[in-house]
Fold this sequence. Notes:
Strand content: 15-25%
Bound molecules: magnesium ion
CATH architecture of the domain at 269-370: 2-Layer Sandwich
Helix content: 40-55%
CATH class of the domain at 269-370: Alpha Beta
Distance between the termini: 42 Å
Number of strands: 14
Amino acid sequence: MLAGNTDRDRKAFRAELLERDVPAGRERQRKIIHIDMDAFFAAVEQRDNLELRGKPVAVGGSRERGVVAAASYEARKFGVRSAMPSIMAKRRCPELIFVMPRFEIYKAVSLQIREIFAEYTSLIEPLSLDEAYLDVTENLKGIASATEIAEDIRTKIRRETNLTASAGVSYNKFLAKLASDYRKPDGLFVITPKMGPAFVESLPIEKFHGVGPATTAKMNRLGIATGLDLRAQPLPFLQQHFGKSGPYFYWIARGVDERPVHADRVRKSIGAENTFARDLHTFEPMRDALEPIIAKVWRHCQATCIRGRTVTLKVKFADFQQITRSKSVGDAIDNFTDLEILSLGLLEPLLPTEKGVRLLGISLSSLAQAQAAERRQLSLVL
Ligand SMILES: [Mg+2]
C-alpha cells in the first residue's frame, strides 16, 4: 500500500489507517472460524488400526521418560491428558495402549485439511498441525454464512480424511477458539456478537486462551476467578499486574479481540545444520555428516510439498569463519539423490582444508509448491 504513488493509492492508504482507528464495536464485523481436529494424533491411529477403536489410546512412548503426545477420548475418561508423563498416564489407566507417533502421516493429513480450507479463503493461520483460524469475512465462494462454511468444511474433512473436526464460529479469534471447544468432539458452536460478552462473563479464567497455570494462580490471588471478575478490573490495574498482556485481558473480558488472522507466512528457505562434537578435516567424514542433514531437509520438502531450485552449503570453520556456497538448477529438485549430489558438489572444491570444520548446513531456496500431480501421488503413498 505504501508503495503506491498515485493520488488514489494515497487516499486508499489514509482510509485504511483511519479504519484501523475505528474504536472497538464500530469496526467492520469479521467472520472467523476456528477449526480443531478431535484428539488428532490418537484419532488418526484409531482410524488406521481397527484394533485401537473404542479403546484408551495414548500416542507417545511408554518408557520411563515417555510423554503422552495425544490421548483418545476413551483414555481421557480416565484423566489421561497430553503432555502427561507416560508413567502417570499408565497409573490412571492400566489398560492404556501406547502407540508410537507417525508424524509423516499427521503432516499429510494436515496438508489435506489445509487444502480444504484453501478452497474457501487464503486467510488461514495454522496454530499447529490440527488447528487453524480462518477469516471468511470475504471468502472465495461468496457464501454469506460463516456457519455454513464451517459445516461444509467439517463435512469435507470427514469425507476426505475419515476424521472429525470441531468448529467454532464467531466475530474474533478469541471467541472462535472458545466456541470450537464448546461442543467437542465433532461439534459446531457459534458465538454471535450478542452472546459474546455473556459467554465470556461466565467463563472460568483458566479457560481463557493465553491464561496458563501461572497466570491463573496469580489472577486467583487477585480475586479474579471468572470473566465477570476480570471485567470488573480497570485497565491500569491489569497493566500494573500483567504488563503488556493487561490490555489484551481487559478487552477479551469484553469479548473484544482485534488480532487479525495472519495468513501462513511464505517460507523463503528450508534448512538444517549440525555442529559437530569434534572438528572434521576430510571429505568422507564430512559426507557422512551431511547425509542426515540432507535427509532432514528432504523430509521437510516431502512433508510440506515444497520444492526448491537453489542449494546452499554453509560451512563454519574451527576459527568461526563462515562461508556459503550456492548452486541453482533450472527445475525444482524433486528427489533426495539429486539434492545429495548437488550438496556434495558444493563441498568438494573446498577440500582439503587446513582449518577444521565445526559446522555444516544445507538449505534450499527458490521455493515453490510441488506439482499438483506429485502432491496427489504423495498423499496416496502416505
Ligand atoms: Mg485438536
